[in-house]
Amino acid sequence: MRIRIHGFTLLETLVALAVIGIAMAAAMRSTRFAIDTVSDLKTRAAAGWVAQNLASELRATRAFPEMGAASGRASQGRQEFLWRWEVGGTPNYSFRRVEIKVFLPERPEHAVARQIVYVARQQN
To answer: Which stretches of the chain are DSSP H helices?
Structure first.
């Protein structure tokens, strides 16, 4: 006597659902990681632009900043940032080294972007 079975057994269905569930969980985790990465890259790019803007402002105004530190706030891409620059000397007295660091307001201890620029004293 031959019995022909059509369809899946309950055990086969449960195994298939478990495999699909694990695959979906892995896909969701991967998607979440990708979204976090894109958000982080967007923040770092905007912070980099803030640092570049400050360096460009120094060059454009031909400023020769005093030794020490200065800080302020800037916004870029609808995001607020804190910045701080530290001006130091170089072996050549006609040049200054300016290190610009950009921070998120909620994490002022971690620099999101950093740029170093050298400015020269202008001869009249």
So the answer is: 10-61
Cα-based torsion angle of the residue sequence 26, 27, 28, 29 in order, rounded to the nearest 10 degrees: 50
Structure confidence at residue 124 (pLDDT): 61
What's the burial of 89, exposed, middle or buried (CB within 10 Å: 0-12/13-18/19+)? exposed
Other C-beta atoms lying within 10 Å of the C-beta of residue 55: 18
The yes-or-no verdict on residue 1 having pLDDT over 70 is no
At residue 116, does pLDDT exceed 70?
A: yes
59 found inside a domain = yes
Tell whether 4 is covered by a domain: no
Cβ(82)–Cβ(69) below 8 Å: no
Residue type for position 107: R
Domain encompassing residue 41: 10-120
Structural domain includes residue 3: no
Domain count, the chain: 1
